Amino acid sequence: MTIRRNFYPLGMYRFMLDMATDQKLAVDEVAFNVLRIGLSELGFTCDHTNIGYSKNDQQLHSKPYCKNCYSRLYRTADKRVFKGKIITEEEYRPIETFIDRERKELEKRAKAENESSISAEIETG
Ligand SMILES: [Zn+2]
């Protein structure tokens, strides 16, 4: 087993630490969320097929996660077997992160602002 240590620049670390404290997450989890978003904008995709289960975190005991991208997942379909044959495989979807929620809120606000500026332009003609 290798020991992994991340050293972040002070300013970035403070920012992530504040986010992590607000969301009650580990700094590394915030960092992975940000990294995942950054990489997905550069073309990174993950089909979340390499499933692992957390064991150490008591609060999240045996919750699924993706070993390839560290996304927290939830099961949307159970494995169903009938007479020894697999009828449906298990399916997993990523849990919405706090960053997803914040981005949705920002998009909603930008859209509302855009619509109000358009309606203002129409009114003033
Ligand atoms: Zn994944």
Tally of contiguous helical segments: 3
Structural class determined from secondary elements: alpha+beta
Separation, N- and C-terminal Cα atoms:
68 Å
Number of DSSP-assigned strands:
6
Overall 3D shape: flat
- Mean pLDDT rating: 87
**Low-confidence sequence ranges:** none
Give a quick rundown of the structure.
Helices cover 45% and strands 18% of the residues.
Describe the structure.
With 125 residues, the protein is of the alpha+beta class. The protein has 3 domains: 8-45; 47-94, no CATH class; 96-125. The chain contains 3 helices and 6 strands; from the N terminus they run ααββββββα. The longest helix is centred in the C-terminal third of the chain and has 27 residues, at 98-124. Zinc ion (ZN) binds at residues 46, 48, 66, 68-69, 71.
Lay out the secondary structure.
Layout: H1 10-23, H2 27-41, E1 51-53, E2 64-66, E3 73-77, E4 80-82, E5 85-88, E6 91-94, H3 98-124
Antiparallel strand pairs: 1-2, 3-6, 4-5
Helix pairs in contact: 1-2
Provide tags for this entry.
single chain, 3 domains, two-stranded antiparallel sheet, 6 strands, 45% helix
